[in-house]
Design goal:
Layout: E1 4-10, H1 23-40, E2 47-52, H2 67-72, H3 76-87, E3 92-96, H4 103-118, H5 154-162, E4 170-171, E5 179-188, E6 192-201, E7 209-214, E8 220-225, E9 228-231, E10 237-241, E11 253-261, E12 270-271, E13 274-276
Parallel strand pairs: 1-2, 2-3, 4-13
Antiparallel strand pairs: 5-6, 6-11, 7-10, 7-12, 7-13, 8-11, 9-10
Helix pairs in contact: 1-3, 4-5
């Protein structure tokens, strides 16, 4: 079993004495802690979360107040990583994350993180804290890429698309069944529009499907047909499942529709990846 070390520098669960250290002593203590812990486990731990949760919760993007941030400034993150690299040149060094929220805002934030990684040659992976919101220890914040019913969220589609994948492409089940979800606008008026989502089975039959439809606030979905909808807390993300039209032979299709109230916005909805069962 490969072990990942978590975490070397963190604002939480610090000894009370740390807050009383001046900048010079704090820098020495931080680097000494990284060095001693990593040397103790060197060769036994393949990857380290070097810095954890250095940014505030929410969407502001601001740095979190902590002894390290307040006394050492923005450079403490880079310094911690440089110290860790010196101690163990062979270990993978990580900054681990999750992003609370829902809908387009959460999707955009995940996409921006992926873009930031892609812009750095030596950034070779992104790890989130689990798979489904249902089992996240921060479940109320819905921070992951799949909802509590294991349906792919807009955040999943945003990550997939940013990595060069196909939005709405098939998501395989353990048995190998897949489906795709494609969107088309049917009618449009000054205050609303009708949309249609076509679900198509892959090369194997499916007995069920689900996908998400995300509209941009202040848009709202006012009516649906040929599907069973559920909503996230924002009211802007609809997860649609079958209403008597879940079983599809290989290569065949069904569809569901909805009416979107523009409320001043003409932005097209985002369709999540289709999940087959």
């Amino acid at each position: 079993m490969k072990l990942r070390g978590h975490t070397l520098v963190w604002h939480s669960q610090l000894p009370s004495r740390v807050s009383g250290l001046g900048a010079t002593d704090l820098r020495t203590a931080m680097n000494n802690h990284i060095t001693q812990v990593m040397q103790h486990y060197q060769g036994k731990i393949y990857a380290w979360d070097v810095v954890n949760e250095a940014f505030q919760d929410g969407t502001s993007g601001a740095r979190r107040s902590s002894p390290f941030q307040d006394k050492l400034g923005n450079g403490f993150i880079e310094e911690a990583f440089r110290t860790a690299r010196t101690v163990d040149p062979d270990a993978k060094l990580c900054y681990k994350l999750d992003i609370e929220g829902s809908g387009t805002a959460q999707a955009d934030n995940y996409a921006n993180v992926v873009k930031a990684c892609l812009a750095v040659t030596r950034c070779t992976g992104i790890t989130v804290w689990g798979i489904t919101d249902k089992y996240s220890w921060r479940a109320s914040g819905t921070p992951l890429l799949f909802d509590s019913n294991y349906a792919a969220k807009p955040a999943y589609t945003a990550v997939l698309t940013t990595l060069g994948g196909s939005s709405g492409g098939g998501t395989p089940t353990p048995g190998g069944a897949t489906c795709t979800a494609t969107y088309s606008k049917q009618e449009e008026w000054s205050d609303r529009f009708n949309g249609k989502v076509t679900i198509t089975a892959g090369s194997s039959p499916i007995s069920g499907w689900s996908t998400t439809v995300t509209v941009t606030s202040p848009q709202k979905i006012s009516a649906t047909w040929n599907g069973t909808p559920t909503w996230d807390g924002s009211g802007n993300v609809m997860t649609m499942r079958p209403n008597g039209n879940g079983s599809l032979a290989a290569g065949t299709s069904t569809s569901f529709g909805f009416t979107g109230m523009k409320n001043g916005s003409s932005t097209a909805p985002v369709i999540g990846a289709c999940t087959a069962s």
